[in-house]
Design a protein that fits this description.
The protein is of the alpha/beta class and about 260 residues long. It is built from 10 helices and 5 strands. The structure holds zinc ion (ZN).
Length: about 260
């Protein structure tokens, strides 16, 4: 019939209407997203969640169970929907505030970096549940970086400079909100150092020791956790710096390309 419309011809007149936030669920994974955002590769996101679940299961013997993920088009939308009413810093791409919230902008959406952010936040969710909210920041962020991505060249060179100039951050200070510091250099160094310390602990103490550390954090202060594992801030800091210096030396010897 002329003049009539089914309401399905164009995106703006679709039956979903202006509110296009939809939810897909499979195997206890729930992903809510804007169906009109053309950048979403939902299958890739489901695969990422499954992969993160299986890494966490393998490393900690833990299954975080149901996972709710919200994907927003902007930081402003995330702020409105999230549990924090404060403004999010410009660099934030995702948060875990009891639920996982990430941003995939309408333009320049990048599935690969969204998958990294998603894995990072899933790690926070699992650690929060495993430690009953008692995981120290450096352990939490260090593990989230190590599980979600390779250490970047930028992080490695920041660490080299920090070691060279004696500007590394003590573990005690690493747990003092440095991961949300407004100075980008300080914030990035905190992430790089936390991830590098985790790499060092995995290499020298074994993955089981990290898993033990995480499970003990549930009921113990980190100082007591270290004590029960024969460690301390100083032992880790000194060992880590020597380990990193040794790596840099080997790196120089073996480097074949500039
Ligand atoms: Zn984080």
């Amino acid at each position: 019939m002329q003049g009539e419309t089914t309401g399905l011809e164009g995106a703006d007149s679709s039956y979903i209407g202006g509110d296009d936030f939809v939810r897909l669920s499979q195997d206890d994974i729930n992903i809510s997203f804007h169906i009109k955002n053309p950048n979403h590769d939902i299958l890739a996101l489901f695969r990422t969640v499954k992969r993160a679940q299986s890494i966490i299961q393998k490393m900690f013997g833990y299954n975080p169970g149901g996972i709710d993920i919200h994907i927003y088009n902007s930081k402003e939308e995330m702020r409105q929907e999230g549990r924090s009413r404060s403004r999010y810093a410009s660099w934030i791409a995702g948060i875990y505030d009891g639920e996982i919230r990430v941003i995939s902008e309408l333009e320049n959406g990048d599935t690969e970096s969204l998958c990294v952010v998603l894995t990072h936040e899933i790690t926070h969710l699992a650690l929060d549940l495993m430690c009953h909210g008692n995981c120290p920041d450096w352990l939490n962020e260090g593990l989230a970086v190590c599980i979600s991505q390779q250490m970047s060249d930028q992080y490695r060179s920041m660490l080299q400079n920090a070691i060279k100039n004696d500007k590394t951050i003590p573990i005690e200070v690493l747990s003092m909100r440095l991961f949300s510091h407004t100075d980008e250099n300080i914030r990035q160094l905190a992430y790089a150092e936390a991830a590098s310390i985790i790499e060092y602990l995995i290499e020298t103490q074994g993955w089981e020791s990290i898993a033990k550390m995480v499970s003990l954090c549930r009921n113990m202060k980190i100082e007591n956790v270290f004590y029960s594992l024969g460690l301390s801030n100083t032992i880790i800091e000194m060992g880590w710096e020597l380990w990193l210096k040794g790596k840099q030396l080997n790196g120089k010897e073996n480097k074949q390309f500039v």
